[in-house]
Every structure is written in structure tokens, then in C-alpha cells.
Specification:
Layout (H helix, E strand, L loop, with lengths): L14 H11 L35 E5 L2 E4 L17 E2 L14 E5 L7 E4 H7 L2 E9 L22 E10 H8 L7 E6 L16 E3 H4 L5 E6 L2 E2 L9 E3 L12 E7 L14 E3 L14 E3 L6 E6 L4 E3 L5 E8 L5 E7 L7 E2 L1 E2 L9 E7 L5 E11 L23 E7 L1
Parallel strand pairs: 4-13, 17-24
Antiparallel strand pairs: 1-2, 2-3, 4-5, 6-7, 7-10, 8-9, 8-13, 10-11, 10-12, 14-15, 16-18, 18-22, 19-20, 19-23, 21-22, 23-24
Bound molecules: ligand MTE and molybdenum atom.
InterPro entries: Ig_E-set, MoCF_OxRdtse_dimer, Mopterin_OxRdtase_euk, OxRdtase_Mopterin-bd_dom, OxRdtase_Mopterin-bd_sf, TAT_signal
Organism: Larkinella insperata
Protein name: Sulfite oxidase
Length: 413
């Protein structure tokens, strides 16, 4: 006969199970006697995959838990280098439960390699030079919640962006070691995560970048983040990291990279995924698939990380305001803020990036003339002269690349 460790023969929680749960919760389950037969307290429901929230800051906001999609409110992103507990999570499938680090392999294959080659983690660490870069990873859907009419997908506000410090080897060094054919045009990654249905035949996500971007100095195959092993949620033990492009190109739980002789056609590379209309469309209009193009470098953008929206300041005090600015493959040249809804702009101090493709810190001390409600709007301009728009940029059916100015509200009392 099957003996449940949790339920007695009538299906009610055993006293021993209840005692364990009480100590795990650190408080008693007040109406435990009234829990119907066969019911577990929600806090102990088995989750679909490892719960990543145990290692996240308590103010992170969960948009979805199957799969996990979690973003940071803007004020949590105040650090120059994003700590793991404040880093957004964007999963398309389930976090792998078993990672065999000792036997983990990276295989490079595809039509355009001379011959496939496989490396262990220690091969990678021993055979190639190690580099560390701070790299911006922004989900292409960051800001989607700002589009009108609303588009399908996770309603990210501003916090699906991070800039951590990644350590690994250059993908271009690995590719040179493998040997490529002349017809190589694209790479595509494969990771170990499972589809939410747990059906291993269903692909989750397999995206990539043109060979030129893959061979940039900053494109890494990384095993460390912020000086430690990459956290499980963010791709342990190996991850492709492609700064400045949709973060969907930075494959987590990486085990294979295919070098392709055509545009990679893995899951979420085709159809309308991570694509925008070639020609501007009227909001709400969804053109046919052949009129879309793949998103490459992300547009210029900035965040106000201090003060947090809703802050109150006293009349006469100067208000220190700061944040970050970044742009796909380029650098931010000038940073402005406005306190009068964009009528006039003041130039901020702006730091150079730590390295190419890192975000840049900006700050300014503001004086606000009288008591009342204000908004601070932040606007970055890149080194090609391209500015963030003050209002909603070109609407698109999948809701990508919203780089409208970030706004916060302040009260002077
Ligand atoms: N294997 C795998 N890699 C992945 C994903 C995924 O679901 N599976 N999501 C991608 C997307 S859409 C984004 S935005 C980033 C999110 O990275 P993060 O969760 O480490 O912040 O990972 C990318 N890499
Ligand atoms: Mo994403």
C-alpha cells in the first residue's frame, strides 16, 4: 500500500507534515483543520521548476511564473553593475533542474564549420584567453506595457534590462579554433531548458546573430557573472552573451552553437518573433509575415533610478537625480532631463562606458521652483545623433523596442 508522507488515509494533512510546514513557514497555519482533504497549503504546492524568487530582491515584480518572467522596478536598478538579485528574468520554458557541470559540453556544429568540435568547460577555460565585460542585456519586449493599443505578451514596464559583468571567452576565438567555411553567415544557439509542457520534442527558443556580430570582441561564451558562477536562473553553467542586441540572442544553459550558411531558423527566429514591420504601420495594423525584419541593435534608451517615482522633496532642497543610458551597438553622447514635460531640457553629467556595450551613468542636481507636482523626464541622444522619443515610438504588432522617455513623478512640499 502507498503511504503518503503528507496525508493520512482519509486524505487530510498528517500532524507530522503540519509541524514541518509550520516550522518552514515560521508561523502557524491558523485554520489548518479546515483544509479540505487532498489539499496542500499553496505555499507548499510543487512548482513547475526551481523557484528563482528565493534568490531575488523582495521588490521584484513577477509577471508570470509559468514560465518565470520577473522585472525590476526602475529604482532597484540603481547600481552601476546589476547584482543578481535585481536582474530581470525572462524564460520561455522551464529552468533546467539538473545541471551536470562536470560533464557539461559545448558543441560547435552547423553547415558552415569545417568539422564539428566539442569542448568541456575546462577546455574552454584552459584553451582560450578569458575576458570580462559589462554588457547590457535588454529584452526586446521591455516597455511593451507602454504601447496603445496593447499588444500580446508579457507587459514589461521599464525593468527588463540589466548590465552585469560577464566573464568568459570570446566566441570568435572558439570559432577560429573550430575553423569556418567561407559561407558562414549566422550563428544559432541551443540551450538545455524544456518547454513548459515538459515535452522534450518541443523546442523552446533557439536564436542567433549574424556572423559579424558573433565575432565582435565583446560577444562572450561566459561561465561567470559578477565574479561568481552564473546563477541557475540566468544560464548556469554556460551562456552566450551578446551585448546591445535583444537579450533573446543571449542563450542560457548553452550546449550548442550552430554556424549557419543562412539566417538561423531556430525557434523564435521565424514568423513575427523578435521582428518589426519593415515599413511603419498604423497602430493596430498587423501586416503579413514577409513584411517584417529581424530586430538587430536595440535603440537608444535611459532610466531614472533615483529618486524613485512618488518621492517627496522639500522646497529649496536640490534634488539629486541619476540613472543609466545605453544604446545597442553605439554609445550615448548626451543626456538630458526635463521638469516641464519636455518644454525645456537640461544637460546632465554623463560618464563614459566601462567598456563598449556597457551602460553609462548620468546625474544632475535639480532645483524645483515651487511647491507642487512635477515629472522628471529623461532623454538620451546617441553618438549618431538619434534621440529617444518623448512619446510612444513606432507601434508594432509584437510590442518591441519601446524606448520612449522614462518618466517619474515627484512632489515638492
Ligand atoms: N535557453 C534560453 N535562453 C534564453 C531564454 C530562454 O528562455 N531560454 N530567454 C531569452 C530572452 S527572451 C531574454 S530577454 C534573456 C533574459 O535573460 P535573463 O533571464 O538572464 O535576464 O534570455 C534569453 N536567453
Ligand atoms: Mo526577451
Amino acid at each position: 500500500m502507498n503511504q503518503s508522507p503528507l496525508f493520512n488515509r482519509r486524505g487530510f494533512l498528517k500532524k507530522s507534515a503540519l509541524a514541518t510546514m509550520t516550522s518552514a513557514l515560521g508561523t502557524q497555519i491558523v485554520f489548518a483543520k479546515s483544509l479540505p482533504a487532498g489539499y496542500l497549503p499553496l505555499a507548499f504546492e510543487p512548482l513547475a521548476d526551481p523557484n528563482p524568487m528565493v534568490s531575488k530582491h523582495k521588490d521584484m515584480s513577477v509577471l508570470n511564473d509559468k514560465p518565470w518572467n520577473v522585472e525590476a522596478p526602475a529604482h532597484l536598478l540603481d547600481d552601476a553593475v546589476t547584482p543578481a538579485d535585481k536582474m530581470f528574468i525572462r524564460n520561455n520554458g522551464l529552468i533546467p533542474e539538473k545541471i551536470d557541470v562536470t560533464n557539461w559540453k559545448l558543441t560547435i556544429n552547423g553547415e558552415s564549420v569545417k568539422a564539428p568540435k566539442t569542448y568541456s568547460l575546462s577546455d574552454l577555460k584552459k584553451r582560450f584567453k578569458t575576458y570580462t565585460y559589462q554588457l547590457v542585456l535588454e529584452c526586446a519586449g521591455n516597455g511593451r506595457a507602454g504601447y496603445v493599443p496593447q499588444t500580446a505578451g508579457n507587459q514589461w514596464t521599464d525593468g527588463a534590462v540589466s548590465c552585469a559583468e560577464w566573464t568568459g571567452v570570446r566566441l570568435k576565438d572558439i570559432l577560429a579554433d573550430v575553423g569556418l567555411k567561407d559561407d558562414a553567415v549566422y550563428i544559432g544557439y541551443y540551450g538545455q531548458d524544456l518547454h513548459v509542457s515538459k515535452d522534450p520534442t518541443k523546442p523552446v527558443i533557439s536564436r542567433g546573430v549574424p556572423i559579424k556580430k558573433a565575432q565582435e570582441d565583446e560577444t562572450l561564451v561566459a561561465w561567470a557573472m559578477n565574479g561568481q558562477d552564473i546563477p541557475l536562473t540566468h544560464g548556469h553553467p554556460l551562456r552566450l552573451v551578446v551585448g546591445g542586441w535583444p537579450a533573446s540572442t543571449s542563450g542560457k544553459w548553452l550546449h550548442t552553437i550552430a554556424v549557419r550558411n543562412k539566417v538561423h531558423d531556430g525557434a523564435k527566429m521565424t514568423g513575427k518573433s523578435y521582428r518589426v514591420p519593415i515599413n511603419p504601420v498604423q497602430p493596430g495594423v498587423d501586416p503579413p509575415e514577409d513584411q517584417f525584419r529581424i530586430i538587430e541593435a536595440m535603440p537608444v534608451k535611459s532610466l531614472i533610478t533615483f529618486p524613485r517615482t512618488g518621492a517627496t522633496v522639500e522646497l529649496g532642497q536640490s534634488v539629486p537625480v541619476r540613472g543609466h543610458a545605453w544604446v545597442g551597438d553605439r554609445a550615448v553622447k548626451t543626456m538630458y532631463v526635463s521638469t516641464d514635460f519636455g518644454a525645456t531640457w537640461q544637460e546632465c553629467k554623463l560618464k563614459a562606458p566601462k567598456n563598449r556595450l556597457a551602460w553609462q551613468q548620468w546625474n544632475i542636481d535639480l532645483k524645483l521652483p515651487q511647491k507642487g507636482y512635477y515629472e522628471i523626464w529623461a532623454r538620451a541622444v546617441d553618438d549618431a545623433g538619434v534621440s529617444q522619443p518623448m512619446v510612444m515610438p513606432q507601434w508594432n504588432p509584437e510590442g518591441y523596442c519601446n524606448n520612449a522617455c522614462h518618466r517619474i513623478a515627484l512632489k515638492v512640499v
